[in-house]
């Protein structure tokens, strides 16, 4: 990575991801970000709510430079020469990290995430990453924090409290320190305690797709899946059909009973008429 970086690197990365065909590595190299951060921007996991800034209109990048980068994935983007010489701003290396007011309520969640996923980090390293205080870290670790019941571990990179590069650097420092301490104590090194290389974690090669199924196998698989999905409803449907059959069997009997009842009534009426005729005579 070069020393000169564009102004508002995350906003510039958002614009480059949305409006160009540059690779994640090129954008990360140009903006001074981690490749995973650029991937998070593309997946809307990082830099949510940040409006992209066009580096062409701001004079930091030319259209020809972007075209060359799109044609050659190995091309490294270069900042355009400034028309006005600006003095170099001295960056502050020491002191607590400034956290915006809108994100300060997320710091306890980030501290809890760091304590769970990277217990090898010192309190001073967590303070540098998140910008919190040592008593707060101790309270969250001992679960005596006033809001410990509602804390949810969240990645500080996703929350925007630190960059992935800073987090990786602190984790690597902690891993080296713990390795030296275990070596001095004569203990074996713990496997799997270091970060994987970037080329392994950002492998863009997709896994080969499985072999295509034949039509008969696909139909059989889909039919079996449909049977599984409708398996819970078949018993109910069968019960409903049985109930309807019972009702249909009962209705003819009822109609026959009604028919027999009407026949008996007609016979009694005829007998009454016959009995009444001799009396009248």
Automatic annotation (TrEMBL):
Residues 174-281 are annotated as: Disordered. Residues 174-184 have a biased composition (Basic and acidic residues). It comes from the Bacteria. Residues 185-197 have a biased composition (Low complexity). Residues 235-281 have a biased composition (Acidic residues). Signal peptide: none annotated. InterPro entries: TrcR (IPR010421). This is Cytoplasmic protein. It comes from Candidatus Filomicrobium marinum.
């Amino acid at each position: 990575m070069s020393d000169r970086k564009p102004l508002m690197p995350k906003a510039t990365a958002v614009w480059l991801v949305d409006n160009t065909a540059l690779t994640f590595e090129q954008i990360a190299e140009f903006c001074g970000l981690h490749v995973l951060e650029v991937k998070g921007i593309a997946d809307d996991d990082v830099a949510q709510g940040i409006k992209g800034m066009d580096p062409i209109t701001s004079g930091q990048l030319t259209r020809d430079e972007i075209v060359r980068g799109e044609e050659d994935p190995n091309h490294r983007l270069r900042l355009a020469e400034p028309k006005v010489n600006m003095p170099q701003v001295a960056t502050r290396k020491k002191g607590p990290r400034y956290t915006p007011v809108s994100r300060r309520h997320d710091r306890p969640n980030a501290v809890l995430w760091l304590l769970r996923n990277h217990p090898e980090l010192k309190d001073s390293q967590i303070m540098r990453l998140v910008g919190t205080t040592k008593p707060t870290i101790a309270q969250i670790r001992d679960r005596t924090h006033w809001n410990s019941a509602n804390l949810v571990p969240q990645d500080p990179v996703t929350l925007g409290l630190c960059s992935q590069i800073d987090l990786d650097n602190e984790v690597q420092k902690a891993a080296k320190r713990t390795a030296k301490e275990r070596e001095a104590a004569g203990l074996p090194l713990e496997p799997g305690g270091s970060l994987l290389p970037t080329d392994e974690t950002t492998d863009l090669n997709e896994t080969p797709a499985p072999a295509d199924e034949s039509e008969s196998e696909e139909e059989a698989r889909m039919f079996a899946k449909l049977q599984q999905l409708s398996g819970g409803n078949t018993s109910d449907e069968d019960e409903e059909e049985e109930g309807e059959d019972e009702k249909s069997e009962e209705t003819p009997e009822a109609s026959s009973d009604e028919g027999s009842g009407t026949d008996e009534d007609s016979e009694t009426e005829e007998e009454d008429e016959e009995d009444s005729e001799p009396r009248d005579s």
